[in-house]
Automatic annotation (TrEMBL):
PANTHER family: GSR2449 PROTEIN, YCII-RELATED DOMAIN-CONTAINING PROTEIN
Coiled-coil ranges from the UniProt annotation: none
Transmembrane segments: none
InterPro entries reported in the protein's UniProt record: Dimeric_a/b-barrel, YCII
Protein name per Swiss-Prot or TrEMBL: YCII-related domain-containing protein
Top-rank lineage group of the source organism: Bacteria
Family of this protein: Belongs to the YciI family.
Domain YCII-related: 6-85
Amino acid sequence: MSIFAVRYTYDERAEVRDAVRPEHRAWLAELATAGVLLGSGPFTDGEPGALLVLQSADESALRTVLAQDPFARDGLVAATEVRGWDLVLGPWSTPSS
């Protein structure tokens, strides 16, 4: 499995985002339970958006998962940046033996 850092940039429709957020967070919770989502959350400054860190077989499979996001489905994600990430240290890393 590869790890990816995904940066969402949201459009300006905060009121629509607020209405869809419960469904979006339920979707994220399902990914976390399945071990796909390692962490996510909105940015606290700058343009509206969020960072998601996910595991996937490859970028194509990851983009298929991201397309299922209620925010993406409703056109609330204006831009998505996907970058492979090499996790070296921290609680998400696998200890070497």
